[in-house]
Every structure is written in structure tokens, then in C-alpha cells.
Design brief:
Elements lengths: L1 H25 L2 E9 L5 E5 L2 E4 L3 E7 L7 E4 L15 E5 L3 E6 L9 E6 L6 H5 L7 H11 L5
Parallel strand pairs: 1-4, 3-8
Antiparallel strand pairs: 1-2, 4-6, 5-7, 7-8
The chain binds copper (II) ion.
Length: 152
């Protein structure tokens, strides 16, 4: 009886380890560049401005041009906020499904905003839509929302 239990446990441990490893192997990293000019000539831009990711994926914000940052604006309930310094490269791992809106602090009113859809973006789509977007950010976020299937 004791021996059978022991055998059962030793078989379970490697199986659990395999599960953890395969989950980690599937997690992807997405790079978002912080730019003075976007590919369509946009001034002050995150590229790509819309990223589709899976829970557990990591987003790396890369300051290709100086003077920009990435700060979360709206995150799903229970998700961590982030706040990068100017010209700082930061990485965030997004474990909670939903839609993440973020901005560049000095260029928010000039339209430097971005969206990351993690799993199902509809979870908190309304919260992202109803946030306050100054100046040009209002028009940019409306365009980005269309790309994640939520017209503004
Ligand atoms: Cu900026």
C-alpha cells in the first residue's frame, strides 16, 4: 500500500514539471518601439500601436527615440499598473486577460497611446472606451479600438 502511493507520487511530479515548462515555452515576448515618427508619418508613436497577446506574455517597450515613456492608463481588474521613466526601456508581463491602454506621459495629448489585447479584450472594453483621452489621443484611441473589435 505504501509502495503504491510512493510510486504514484513520483510519476506525478515529472508530469507537473512538464506542464509548467510547456506553459513557459509558449509565453511570447512582444516588442513595442517608442518613436518620434510612426510608419505612416504619425508624430510621437508606439509601433505597433495595437498588440494582440496571450496571458503570460511579456511586452518590452523599447526607446528607439528619446523623450518617451510607457505608463499604463487602463488595465483589467487585478492587473498590475506600470510606469516607465522617460527614455527608459521597460518590460511588463501581462498575466490578467483583458484590454490594456497605455500612454506616453509627455505626448498623451498629441495622440501617443497604445492598446494591448490580452486574450479576450471585451472583458474591460467599456472601461477603456470610457476613459478620458485629451486632444488627439481621442481620435487615435478610436482608431485603435476598431482594430481590437470595439468601435468607439
Ligand atoms: Cu512620447
Amino acid at each position: 500500500m505504501q509502495r503504491r502511493l510512493f510510486l504514484g507520487a513520483t510519476m506525478l511530479i515529472p508530469a507537473a514539471g512538464l506542464l509548467v515548462r510547456s506553459r513557459r515555452a509558449l509565453a511570447a515576448e512582444h516588442e513595442i518601439q517608442m518613436l518620434n515618427q510612426g510608419p505612416q508619418g504619425q508624430r510621437n508613436w508606439f509601433e505597433p500601436a495595437v498588440v494582440t497577446a496571450q496571458p503570460g506574455d511579456t511586452i518590452r517597450f523599447v526607446p528607439k527615440d528619446k523623450g518617451h515613456n510607457s505608463t499604463s492608463l487602463v488595465v483589467p481588474d487585478g492587473a498590475k499598473e506600470w510606469k516607465g521613466k522617460l527614455s527608459e526601456e521597460i518590460s511588463v508581463t501581462l498575466d490578467v486577460p483583458g484590454l490594456y491602454a497605455y500612454k506616453c506621459t509627455p505626448h498623451f495629448g498629441l495622440g501617443m497611446v497604445g492598446l494591448i489585447a490580452v486574450g479576450d479584450p471585451s472583458i474591460n472594453l467599456e472601461a477603456v472606451k470610457s476613459a478620458r483621452y485629451p486632444g488627439k489621443a481621442k481620435q487615435v484611441i478610436a482608431e485603435l479600438l476598431k482594430q481590437v473589435g470595439g468601435s468607439a
